[in-house]
């Protein structure tokens, strides 16, 4: 996996819980181009342990001088976002992956409806830049809790003009998905990114209204949940490792010196899939990738977010 | 590789195409073992072995000028070999960037690219092209950007849009194909255009290959080899032109087999493109006559064994049935039954 070394050039406190980071290539060289909706995975060295979190690129894909990411402080998480907020300063050096796009605009879309909740606005910032450049038809719906949580509203107004629709919860403005999804012209695509209940509600409404699956796009990166520690045996590498409660299986394998495949690290893309050869207890699937049937069959697991509760777990890796 | 003198040669009519000893030595012989079956033979497209066809992302060799000329002739007869659906414009510029950047970085003696913001200056010395244009502005090039640049590179290119968890062949420059057609496959999905391939789907190859490709990353291209055989060194073995080359398959005799029958190896590389998120699939064909190939006895013996063991469905699909036995018989005197080292190296 190709890696980029970057330096933090600027940090801006956008709301009381969101910080915006400007990253530049360590030697000032141009960064790779990307397409709207892409993310990078940022590696952080927290007390000698490597954490890797995915963040959407928010800048315009035209701009190769710097990358832009925003991080919401998640107090109850395993420390990646807190480290980004407290430990990373202007001048800090970070490693990031090349951009990957798991949330791309459909090039055949006649119209695009973008729906963001809270920090879920980030992937849309680069998508809007692409849509503006291509002159495509779109609506941007942005929902957030209260005026002070509306990160990037001013920037969005400039980018979207009257295509921007704000939905401020504290002022009683909720998005009515039923209305939004009815009566859209044929060939419309909808994209949603935000808290899980919102994403699920939209997906359900789209399904009820008979939207074709290929026209409904969502992005949800899960943070690996904290759990109990367990042991896992790796058949091909011929080793046994412990997965501590605050580490994912993927991270534990990396700590052990292996280089398992990954792209999203959030249970969305399927890249990290491994075969389960043996498990004498329960697999705790936390991903959005495997189908319910695959989860039930117990033959596969996504180590970036899923765990196990058992005495013996043997993976084919 | 040393600077090759670009050859003046033809891939049609009088067929003057030949390989120099150096081109024979670097030929990407595809058989590491005595048996061949389809597999997901995908590896990282990283630079290996200076001088080999794997040294650079895009290989330029002694046949460069002649192959570009052959493409020009084919397009003159049939412009539909180039196709770009309207939603692929970002991918067109991605291709201009990929090809110009990698050729100018890897072969500075022949290609130069200077950029001043969006003002690009491109010099292609072998083809005597000197072009200033505005990146992103189609009106500043003499033709569509992808057609412009793909006329200046060897091998076919198919560019796939990535949507609905699938890949769609929505753009292509295809003038040297082994009996398939971009005009026919345009707009098809990965499984659809692979429909005619025998055996592979049954053993799950296309499922796994597609899954892998959907995760292909910008900056980490991959490659694989594919092979077939062709009678006469003809690049354009398209279904459209079948009447011109199909009958040649029946023309192989024990006397002319060494000169007429060519092993045709495709170096297929896959690149994720940055602006469009599309995937570029390059099919770079290398031809070698059996006379040239048998200068390395290991290759001669291995090819004979592979052809002898070849699954009949593959032989039929690749169109070898009319002359496969003639080739095996012709190679027979070179066979000593010795165990051959694993790997594709010539000795
Ligand atoms: C995504 C880019 C690809 C494109 C555009 C592509 C296109 C094609 C086409 C047009 C054919 C000829 C089908 C016909 O007879 O009409 C073919 C054959 C085939 N493809 Fe692909 N392919 C791609 C990737 C792959 C990959 C990754 C594999 C990996 C296993 C693969 C395996 C094969 C095989 C085994 C054949 C039969 C080849 C022969 O026996 O000559 N392809 N492909
Ligand atoms: S890395 Fe994407 S699902 Fe695990």
List the helices and strands and how they pair.
The complex is a heterodimer of chains A (317) and B (347).
Chain A (H helix, E strand, L loop, with lengths): L2 E11 L4 E8 L12 E9 L2 E8 L10 E6 L7 H7 L6 E5 L2 E2 L9 E7 L4 H13 L2 E8 L8 H8 L3 E5 L8 H5 L6 E6 L2 H13 L7 E4 L10 E5 L4 E5 L5 H7 L18 E6 L2 E3 L7 H6 L2 E2 L5 E3 L3 E3 L2
Parallel strand pairs in A: 8-9, 8-11, 9-10, 11-12, 13-19
Antiparallel strand pairs in A: 1-2, 1-6, 2-5, 3-4, 3-6, 3-7, 13-14, 15-17, 15-19, 16-18
Chain B lengths: L20 H5 L17 E2 L19 H14 L4 E3 L4 H18 L4 E6 L2 E6 L4 E6 L10 H6 L5 E8 L2 E8 L8 H4 L4 H4 L11 H10 L7 E10 L10 H4 L11 H4 E12 L6 E11 H4 L3 H13 L2 H6 L6 H8 L16
Write out key terms for the chains shown.
heterodimer; A: 317 residues; Elongation Factor Tu (Ef-tu), domain 3; Rossmann fold; Ubiquitin-like (UB roll); seven-stranded antiparallel sheet; five-stranded parallel sheet; 7 helices; B: alpha+beta; 13 helices; binds protoporphyrin IX containing FE; binds FE2/S2 (inorganic) cluster
Structure description:
The complex is a heterodimer of chains A (317) and B (347). By secondary structure, chain A is an alpha/beta fold. Chain A folds into three domains: 3-101, Translation factors (Elongation Factor Tu (Ef-tu), domain 3, Beta Barrel); 111-219, 3-Layer(aba) Sandwich (Rossmann fold); 230-315, Roll (Ubiquitin-like (UB roll)). Chain A contains seven helices and 19 strands. In chain A, strands 1, 2, 3, 4, 5, 6 and 7 form a seven-stranded antiparallel sheet that branches. Chain A has a five-stranded parallel sheet with strand order 10-9-8-11-12, with helices on both faces. Chain B is α+β, with helices and mostly antiparallel strands and 347 residues long. Chain B is 29% helix and 21% strand. Chain B has 13 helices and ten strands. In chain B, the strands form two sheets. In chain B, strands 1-8-9-10-6-7-2 form a seven-stranded antiparallel sheet. The longest helix of chain B has 18 residues, at 89-106. The radius of gyration of chain B is 20 Å and the shape is globular. The model of chain B has no long low-confidence stretch (mean pLDDT 94). The chains are: A alpha/beta (317), B alpha+beta (347). At the A-B interface, strand 7 of A face strand 6 of B. Bound molecules: protoporphyrin IX containing FE and FE2/S2 (inorganic) cluster. Residues 262-265, 267-272, 287, 289, 302, 304 of chain A line the site of FE2/S2 (inorganic) cluster.
């Amino acid at each position: 996996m190709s890696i980029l070394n970057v330096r933090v050039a600027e940090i801006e406190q956008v709301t009381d819980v969101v910080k915006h980071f400007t990253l530049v290539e360590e030697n000032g060289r141009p960064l790779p181009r990307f397409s709207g909706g892409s993310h990078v995975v940022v590696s952080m060295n927290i007390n000698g342990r490597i954490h890797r979190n995915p963040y959407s690129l928010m800048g315009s894909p035209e701009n190769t001088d710097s990358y832009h990411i925003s991080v919401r402080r998640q107090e109850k998480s395993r420390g990646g976002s807190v480290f980004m907020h407290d430990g990373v300063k202007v001048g800090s050096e970070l490693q990031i992956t090349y951009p990957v796009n798991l949330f791309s605009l459909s090039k055949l879309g006649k119209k695009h409806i973008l729906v963001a909740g809270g920090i879920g606005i980030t992937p849309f910032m680069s998508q809007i830049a692409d849509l503006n450049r291509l002159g495509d038809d779109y609506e941007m719906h942005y929902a957030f809790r209260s005026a002070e949580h509306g990160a990037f509203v001013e920037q969005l107004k400039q980018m979207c003009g009257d295509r921007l629709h704000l939905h401020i919860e504290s002022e009683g403005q909720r998005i009515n998905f039923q209305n939004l999804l009815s009566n859209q012209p044929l060939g419309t695509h909808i994209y949603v990114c935000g808290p899980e209940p919102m994403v699920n509600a939209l997906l359900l409404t789209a399904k009820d209204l008979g939207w074709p699956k290929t026209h409904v796009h969502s992005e949800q990166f899960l943070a690996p949940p904290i759990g109990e520690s367990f042991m896992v045996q790796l058949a091909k590498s011929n080793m046994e490792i412990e997965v501590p409660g605050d580490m994912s299986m993927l991270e534990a394998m990396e700590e052990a010196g292996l280089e398992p495949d990954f792209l999203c690290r959030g249970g969305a893309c399927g890249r990290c899939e491994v075969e389960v050869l043996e498990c004498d207890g329960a697999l705790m699937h936390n991903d959005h990738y495997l189908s319910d049937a695959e989860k039930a069959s117990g033959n596969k697991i996504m180590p970036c977010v899923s765990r196990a509760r058992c005495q013996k777990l043997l993976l084919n890796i | 590789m040393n600077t090759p003198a670009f050859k003046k040669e033809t891939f049609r009519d009088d067929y003057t195409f030949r390989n120099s000893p150096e081109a024979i030595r670097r030929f990407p012989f595809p058989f590491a073992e005595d048996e061949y079956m389809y597999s997901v033979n995908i590896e990282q497209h990283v630079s290996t072995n200076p001088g080999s066809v794997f040294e650079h992302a895009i290989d330029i060799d002694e046949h460069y000028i002649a192959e570009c000329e052959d493409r020009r002739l084919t397009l003159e007869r049939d412009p539909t070999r180039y196709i770009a659906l309207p939603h692929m414009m970002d991918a067109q510029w991605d291709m201009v960037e990929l090809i110009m950047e990698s050729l100018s970085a890897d072969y500075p003696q022949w290609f130069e690219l200077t950029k001043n913001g969006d003002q690009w200056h491109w010099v292609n010395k072998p083809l005597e092209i000197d072009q200033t244009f505005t990146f992103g502005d189609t009106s500043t090039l003499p033709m569509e950007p992808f057609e412009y640049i793909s006329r200046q590179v060897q091998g076919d290119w198919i560019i796939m849009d990535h949507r609905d968890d699938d890949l769609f062949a929505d753009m292509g420059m295809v003038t040297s194909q082994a009996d398939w057609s971009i005009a026919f496959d345009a707009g098809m999905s990965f499984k659809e255009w692979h429909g005619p391939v025998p055996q592979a789907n049954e053993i799950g190859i296309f499922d796994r290959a597609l899954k892998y490709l959907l995760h292909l990353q910008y900056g980490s291209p991959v490659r694989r080899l594919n092979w077939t055989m062709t009678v006469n060194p003809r690049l354009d073995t398209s279904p459209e032109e079948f009447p011109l080359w199909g009958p040649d398959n029946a023309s192989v005799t024990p006397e002319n087999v060494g000169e007429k029958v060519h092993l045709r190896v495709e170096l297929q590389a896959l690149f994720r493109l940055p602006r469009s998120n599309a995937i570029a699939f390059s099919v770079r064909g290398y031809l070698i006559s059996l006379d040239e190939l048998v200068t390395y006895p290991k290759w001669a013996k291995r090819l004979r064994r592979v052809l002898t063991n070849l699954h009949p469905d593959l032989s039929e699909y690749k169109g070898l049935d009319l002359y496969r036995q003639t080739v095996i018989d012709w190679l027979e005197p070179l066979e000593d039954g010795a165990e051959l080292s694993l790997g594709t190296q010539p000795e």
